[in-house]
């Protein structure tokens, strides 16, 4: 994990508060710079963490059928506005040669990739590519659904709008029937 410079973040937050016309020495804001620095350390803890690390734990299992973990909650920060976006990821793969990983590893990969200044499209493709490169399955698919606060609280102001991104690789990309099976399970 990258080292976070809390003092630098605290100073930046003080400057932002002053720039918007607030008094950073006001009682309610006095500890805000420290709280924000601590929050940023947590929210951006995925910087410099490689999601492929989670797929190094491999089990041999005679299973070459669909594995799907759906509704994995995540929170991330839009790299364009530094405001949150959040939602659920659905991660599927079809193991090859008995190479399976722990189910929690799929969720950890999503969480790690989300804990960076991020784009939803990048989360989707980074997770699926990490699975393909390390587990070498027949195919993999990641679907991410999220609400972006940059669309909800500013700009177009459309609360409740969801953005859906997909990344499909291998047999799941080539075989529409298998891909549709995954989507049916996700939507069930």
TrEMBL record:
Identify the residues that bind Zn(2+).
78, 81, 150
Q: Which residues form the signal peptide?
A: none
Q: What class of enzyme is it?
A: hydrolase
Q: Which SUPFAM superfamilies match?
A: Tetrahydrobiopterin biosynthesis enzymes-like
| An MF annotation (GO) of this entry | GTP cyclohydrolase I activity
The entry's keywords: GTP-binding, Hydrolase, Metal-binding, Nucleotide-binding, One-carbon metabolism, Zinc
Gene3D superfamilies for this protein: 1.10.286.10, 3.30.1130.10
Assembly description: Homopolymer.
User: This chain belongs to which protein, by name?
Assistant: GTP cyclohydrolase 1
| Source organism (scientific name) | Bacillus seohaeanensis
């Amino acid at each position: 994990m990258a080292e976070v410079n809390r003092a630098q973040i605290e100073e930046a937050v003080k400057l932002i508060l002053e720039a918007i016309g607030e008094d950073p020495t006001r009682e309610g804001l006095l500890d805000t710079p420290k709280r924000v620095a601590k929050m940023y350390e947590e929210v951006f803890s995925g910087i410099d963490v490689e999601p492929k690390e989670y797929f190094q734990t491999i089990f041999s299992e005679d299973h070459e059928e669909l594995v799907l973990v759906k509704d994995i909650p995540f929170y991330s920060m839009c790299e364009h506005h530094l405001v949150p976006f959040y939602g659920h990821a659905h991660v599927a793969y079809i193991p090859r040669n008995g190479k399976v990983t722990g189910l929690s590893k799929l969720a950890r990969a999503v969480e790690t990739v989300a804990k960076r200044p991020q784009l939803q499209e990048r989360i989707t493709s980074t997770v699926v590519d990490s699975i393909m490169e390390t587990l070498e399955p027949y195919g993999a698919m990641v679907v991410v659904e999220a609400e972006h606060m940059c669309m909800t609280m500013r700009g177009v102001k459309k609360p409740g709008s969801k953005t859906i991104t997909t990344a499909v690789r291998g047999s799941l990309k080539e075989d529409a029937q298998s891909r549709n099976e995954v989507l049916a399970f996700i939507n069930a």
